[in-house]
Amino acid sequence: MNxxxxxxxxxxxxxxxxxxxxxxxxxxxxxxxxVVTTYERVDLLGNLLAARAGDAELLNPxxxxxxxxxxxxxxxxxxxxxxxxxxxxxxxxxxxxxxxxVHPVIAGVTEAVHxxxxxxxxxxxxxxxxx
Length: 131
Description:
The strands form two sheets. Strands 1-2-3-4 form a four-stranded antiparallel beta sheet, with no helix packed on it. Strands 5-6 form a two-stranded antiparallel ribbon. It is built from three helices and six strands. The model has no long low-confidence stretch (mean pLDDT about 90). About 25% of the residues lie in helices and about 25% in strands. The chain has a domain at about 80-130.
């Protein structure tokens, strides 16, 4: 089953989830029904070129990306990942693509990531089978 990718930020009163391929934000507070807002897509490459030409302000300046770059540096310096046992991986077709186009799906990954994010622990603590 293919699902839209998202990023979730958890807070003390609820969470905010960004579905970045749909330009949609879901705000879930205190167990109430989510409030969903859809935004107009912004062409960041077009903005970069316009800013370079002096016709616009850069919407995402480098100075505002320190935290992102720190994460990227930590990933770059981390040890190589360990292969996952092939028995925990299935290969599923990509929606709307040629039947030969498949992608790996790791058993239980969505649930484990959610448990890690909400508990503040790691994959070992939630007993993810691929650890």
